[in-house]
Amino acid sequence: MIEIINGNGSFPCLIVCDHASAHIPPALSGLGLAPGCDTLHIALDLGIEPVVRMLSAALDAPAVLTGQSRLVLDTNRWIADSQSIPESSDGVLIPGNICLSEADRMDRQERYFWPFHAAVAEQWAAMRARHANPAFFALHSCTRQLALGSMRTMDGGTIWHEDSGFARMLAQSLGDQFGLTIADNAPYSGIGGGSFTLDYHCWSSGKPACGFEIVNDLIAEEAGRRQWAGYLAAGLRSVLQ
Q1: Nearest to 178 by CA among 214, 220, 146, 142
Q2: Does domain 3-240 have CATH number 3.40.630.40?
Q3: What domain of life does the native source organism fall in (predicted)?
Q4: CA angle centred on 232, ends 230 and 235, rounded to 5°
């Protein structure tokens, strides 16, 4: 189920979380995955769902969260992307996604992709009606290391495509206030369609919009999650107010 938190929140920023849940609907028989895969980063952005809840409460800001695993369907990818419904992820095969028919793919899109983006669009329209210049903030977590890739030394990173202003002001605020190392458009770039959610809801809107990745070992425990909710609340207040 899609979840909307604090829908009438007063802070002029909509928080969106594409990868909040590891839930796989019972009808999909666990996608044929081995037990324990739902605790891995391939299934969801580890640690981010409680950070979103804490941040929403701290700011009094609305938030929209997905209700299913990105292994069922990734709401932050274009539906034509082969990884929209991945057959493997970080070296793990996903049997329930292999050789899906076009009808099966369209069924998942109708069940999970379009309803989520309709909910985001509704909340974003309401926010634009309430505020002259609201912001759109898509929150994620990333791994310290992906497969055999190099170690990421950053604490977090921004994601942007059309306009870097909001992202770079937020990064500077977090660095100045808390000494955090925030990478620019990393570890994933939003340029060229790297973030469906940002582009679909914000392209050409003229509104401040960016994504943000927290390295997930920093939010593995409750204390780190509360700390990061505080960091982001302070950073967003300083930039948007």
Answers
A1: 214
A2: yes
A3: Bacteria
A4: 110
Rounded to an integer, what distance in angstroms lies between the CA atom of residue 200 and that of residue 71?
Answer: 21
| Contact indicator for 209, 166 with CB cutoff of 8 Å | yes
- Whole-Å CA distances, 52 to 16, 29, 91, 217: 8, 29, 28, 16
Please give the model's pTM, rounded to 2 decimal places: 0.96
Residue with tokens 């469906």: 196
The string of DSSP codes covering 169-210 is HHHHHHHHHH---EESS-SS--TTTT-HHHHHHHTTS-S-EE
- Name the phi and psi angles at 122, rounded to 5: -65, -45
**Roughly what angle, to the nearest 10 degrees, separates helices 222-240 and 48-59?**
40
218 vs 234: CA distance, rounded Å: 18
* pLDDT tens for the chain, residues 1 to 241: 899 999 999 999 999 999 999 999 999 999 999 999 999 999 999 999 999 999 999 999 999 999 999 999 999 999 999 999 999 998 899 999 999 999 999 999 999 999 999 999 999 999 999 999 999 999 999 999 866 667 889 999 999 999 999 999 999 999 999 999 999 999 989 998 889 999 999 999 999 999 999 999 999 999 999 999 999 999 999 999 8
**Of 38, 32, 36, which Cα lies nearest the Cα of 100?**
32
In sequence order, the 6+-apart residues with CB closer than 8 A to the CB of 199 are 161, 162, 190, 193
